[in-house]
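Section 5: illustrative case.
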């Protein structure tokens, strides 16, 4: 039976903004290697590094840099055909939803294998590429939703083999000496090669992996901090508490309380544009008011007043863009235009301006629910930015 599948291109390290229209028949898997904004049919999304987005056929998408001074970088895998749609459905990956897997090392290897098949086009290459694509999407979904750490080594390089094993078995008591012995190197030589390869020390890489895993555990249920600490391989609760707070700016308990939807319940995976999800995660929220083509904070603005230093009535009377730092006026105007055209905005990183003139970095979201627009602000780093 003929395989109904074709590949338009696989491009790496793209640096120019790109747009897809409703005339584009291809599915497109995007991997963001830098911060970026995605203008989709469902909303305006701010994306971080190593996030993935699967564009549907005949669906609009525009990718551009998040900030004027930041270099855009992304990978594109464009393909089409009825068999392509079948494997997408088999993977259960939703179209037009941003996915942020715990690790993305598997993508490097699979993109490399797909690229090799596209160059050689040996017998049954389409079926092989289909299989790799299904594996890519399935791993992407699993590592985004379940917290499992399965990795495919990249070109069988020993360092990547070892790193994948460490990430998968993060709860083991790994020592630098043990890692170095696996490579047949001295500890100092191993640490130097590891940092050169992955831009992070092996110790810090392991700690961050454990912290990431602990966050997933803390978000899933009201499990005790002690059990999470032990399950993630920390030597003591005290050390876990200190390491977590240093890298997250909050204690494990505070993080858990903030993440859980209801005390003692398991957190249910939600789509990004969810009123419940945004309300739970935002420190500040309210209703948007539209006046002469501008958006304004509406209702009770006392809590935002404490963040920005302005009186509540000033916040209600002035347009939202009046409180945006001049460096972010362009991207803020784009977000306002999206809202005015009934498009949601998700986790847009912008700098608000305090009354004293200093910047406050926040994540801003806006959601249309029924006939009402709601705004949300997350301020994970409450200190002022010079």
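Designed sequence:
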């Amino acid at each position: 039976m003929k395989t109904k599948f074709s590949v338009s291109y696989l491009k790496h390290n793209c640096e120019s903004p790109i747009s897809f229209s409703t005339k584009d028949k291809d599915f497109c898997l995007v991997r963001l290697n830098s911060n970026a904004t995605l203008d989709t049919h469902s909303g305006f999304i701010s994306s971080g590094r190593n996030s993935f987005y699967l564009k549907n056929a005949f669906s609009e998408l525009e990718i551009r840099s998040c900030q004027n001074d930041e270099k855009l970088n992304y990978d594109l895998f464009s393909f089409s055909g009825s068999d392509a749609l079948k494997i997408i459905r088999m993977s259960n990956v939703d179209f037009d939803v941003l996915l942020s897997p715990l690790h993305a090392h598997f993508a490097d290897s699979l993109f490399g294998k797909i690229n090799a098949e596209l160059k050689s086009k040996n017998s049954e290459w389409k079926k092989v590429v289909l299989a790799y694509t299904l594996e890519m999407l399935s791993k992407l979904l699993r590592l985004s939703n379940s917290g499992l750490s399965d990795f495919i080594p990249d070109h069988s390089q020993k360092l990547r083999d070892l790193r994948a094993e460490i990430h998968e078995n993060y709860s083991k008591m790994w020592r630098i000496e043990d890692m170095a012995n696996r490579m047949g190197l001295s500890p100092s030589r191993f640490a130097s090669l590891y940092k050169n390869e992955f831009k992070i020390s092996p110790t810090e890489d392991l700690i961050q992996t454990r912290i990431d895993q602990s966050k997933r555990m803390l978000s899933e249920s009201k499990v005790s901090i002690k059990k999470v600490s032990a399950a993630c391989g920390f030597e003591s609760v005290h050390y876990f508490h200190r390491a977590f707070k240093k890298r997250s700016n909050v204690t494990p308990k505070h993080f858990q309380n903030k993440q859980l939807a209801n005390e003692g319940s398991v957190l249910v995976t939600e789509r990004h544009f969810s009123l419940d999800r945004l309300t739970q995660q935002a420190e500040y929220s309210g209703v948007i008011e539209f006046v002469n083509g501008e958006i304004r904070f509406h209702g009770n603005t006392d809590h935002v007043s404490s963040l920005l230093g302005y009186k509540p009535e000033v916040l209600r009377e002035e347009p939202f863009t009046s409180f945006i730092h001049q460096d972010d006026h362009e991207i803020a105007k784009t977000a306002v235009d999206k809202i005015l055209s009934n498009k949601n905005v998700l986790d847009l990183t912008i700098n608000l301006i305090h009354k004293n003139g200093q910047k406050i970095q926040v994540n801003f979201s806006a959601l249309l629910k029924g006939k009402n627009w709601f705004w949300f602000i997350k301020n994970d780093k409450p200190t002022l930015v010079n």
